[in-house]
Amino acid sequence: MSTTDLAQTPEHRPKPTTVRIAAVQYLLRAIDDWAGFENQVRFVMKAAGEYKPQFVMFPEIFTTQLLSFMDTQDVSAAVRNLHQYTEAYTALFRELAARWGTHIIGGSHPTIIDGQLINRAYLFTPEGRVFTQDKIHLTRWEREKWRGDPGHHLNVFDTPHGRIAILICYDIEFPELSRMVCEKGADILFVPSCTDDRQGFWRVRYCCHARAIENQVYVAVTGTVGNLAVEGLGLHFGQAAIITPSDFPFARDGIAAEGVPNMEQIVIADVDLSKLVSNRINGTTIPLYDKRHDVYDNEVDIVNTR
């Protein structure tokens, strides 16, 4: 039996459960200090935590809100200076994950690792453990303006509520990454995002739907909303959604829940992991199993028709 088969057969799956996901449309508003950031995060977590979700997700680079009170004349240097808040950021979310008894995908936070600027997502568990996933593919803005560095490795996290993976924004636009983690048994893909315009938002959103269909998984996506008086952060277009495969057991249009675009709110939905197990075997189509590995190993032939 292959690694892929082992990851996907029902006897090797987590016990089927209903999982509640809360996706935060986080409003970037100007603040005066760290306390302003912490107060807003605590307010949001209280609102989300009272619904007793198993997972709460914040958007990509939402900690750039801290640039409100920092020197941003040199935007690349300013983003690097955010690293000084990494310890406080992780301490805050470790506390909140324990306080509310939930797993928190703490969006992502610019982090300096061995001198490199990494767009790093953090996963906080109720037991106080911290795990990370680095962004693999950087946008032109991240490469050219921030002078950031890419990550190189994917993770799949085993949790009491199923296997999950985190693909930060642009990474969801590369179907190979999603297939890799789903072949290792991922049940839910979390996509913290930050997009400045409608076109960028829809690139991410449409790809989330495609990945849910291709891999027969749930995909949760959220983004920042609002604006900051900082280069590259003046506009945001965001809308959270919990997306399902497209088949009879799931939501009619493949959307379990979605928010109102560009408003501060929390989008919550329950997803049933047992439906994934059944659908991957008995679905109208089963693209996760039907992949022709024998063909994918072949080179593409270029045929001259002239």
Shape: globular
Judged by helices, strands and strand pairing, the structural class is alpha/beta
Alpha-carbon distance between the two ends: 45 Å
Number of helices: 10
Q: How many structurally independent domains?
A: 1
The stretches of 5 or more residues where confidence is low (pLDDT under 50) are: 1-12
Residues in β-strands, percent: 25-35%
Radius of gyration: 19 Å
Mean pLDDT level: 93
Corresponding CATH architecture: 4-Layer Sandwich
What is the fold named in CATH at topology level? Nitrilase/N-carbamoyl-D-aminoacid amidohydrolase
Largest beta sheet, briefly? 12 strands, mixed
Helix fraction, binned, reads: 25-40%
Element pattern in H and E: HEHEHHEEEHEEHEHEEEEHHH
Give a count of the beta strands, DSSP E runs of length 2 or more: 12
CATH superfamily: Carbon-nitrogen hydrolase
Q: Please write the CATH class name.
A: Alpha Beta
